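FYI - complex with adenosine-5'-diphosphate, inputs then prediction.
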Amino acid sequence: MSAVNPGSTVSLCIMSGKGGVGKTNLALNLGLTLRDMGHRLLLMDCDLGLGNLDVLLGLTPEKNLQDILGGEVKPEDVVLAVEDGLDILPAASGVPELVEMDQNQRDSLFEQLAGLVAGYDFLLMDLGAGISSTVLALARMAQMRIVLVTPEPTSLTDGYAIIKVLNAKFGVRDFCVVVNQASAEESRETFQRLNMACKNFLGFELLHLGHVRLDRTLTQAVIHQTPLARFAPECPASVDIRVLAGRIARYRSENLETIAARRALKEFLPGATARNT
Ligand SMILES: Nc1ncnc2c1ncn2[C@@H]1O[C@H](COP(=O)(O)OP(=O)(O)O)[C@@H](O)[C@H]1O
Ligand SMILES: [Mg+2]
């Protein structure tokens, strides 16, 4: 297996039913933590209406993902290096018509991205909240799906809704759950509630990947436009994110053969079927 085997890229998406639960911060800090562990990552801002990954980093990108859609710009020209081993693909903000790309636009975008993505160990996608067709298409293609919830009942019902829709539309049955702003115990309780609903009404169970504690340091990091993993690497939330990163890295190493056999590139070609359909 060569160092840059196109088949060994793991695509992972972070999604939630509602906004403001912590997706972008989790994506960014997971990305930095996996990078610190020696992995090469592309962090893609897939929140096409309200992209703000760049804001958390204090960057003002000249080009973004939407420019690739126009066809004049190559993905390589949009990518920004955050640190050695971690690149981002920024998205535009405040362009609502791009939230609902049609099938042709999506196919063309994925085709253009396939070559770029193949050079990384992980493609980490920060999805917009909710169940737009673009969110569903990206979530369907990802090899790992993280549903981010908080212990609030509304977050739980919205998380369940997104799982239900992906299952009903595409037959997807494998989801990881991360409970944000929660203690270990709250996380277990929240997970159990969500898992029970899936087991009883959809007929499959979820995987509990872990939790991130409620940590005011994160708010400070956001204000300073510095990622938490750099602002306070030893604070409780950073410690929890390291545990999550370790589990994700293990998933990749344990499944490398299956992943390589499936050729990640194919995942981004039009008509590629989801793993579980
Ligand atoms: N673990 C946490 N502890 C404390 N505050 C958090 C935590 N996770 C998220 N937040 C707060 O929620 C806000 C929104 O987070 P963000 O990552 O932008 O959410 P999303 O991308 O889901 O809309 C952050 O700016 C932060 O203030
Ligand atoms: Mg966000």
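The longest helix spans residues 184-202. The chain has 13 helices and eight strands.
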